[in-house]
Design brief:
Length: 95
Amino acid sequence: MPIEVVWDDEEQTIVRHIYGAIVSPEDYYDTVKQSAKMLSSVTHPVDLIVDLRELKMSLRGMITMAQYANKMVPDNQRLVVAVGLNLIIKGMLKV
């Protein structure tokens, strides 16, 4: 699986997204849906850890994908911690 989505703790307060090297937009959209479903299954706040250390993705389509994800954020999503961002992605996030 290009992106693995798992509960990171038994209390279900953290969801971890583990990205593989190659991720298609469809993989990303499926991950966003799966993550939103997981968060919606509980009522307490949930944090996300997004592990991008292995990702080798171009910037093409990234803005569209981010806009889609922003529309799908459940009310109980709290913090998002990204691990392994490259400089280009860091710059885009600041914008």
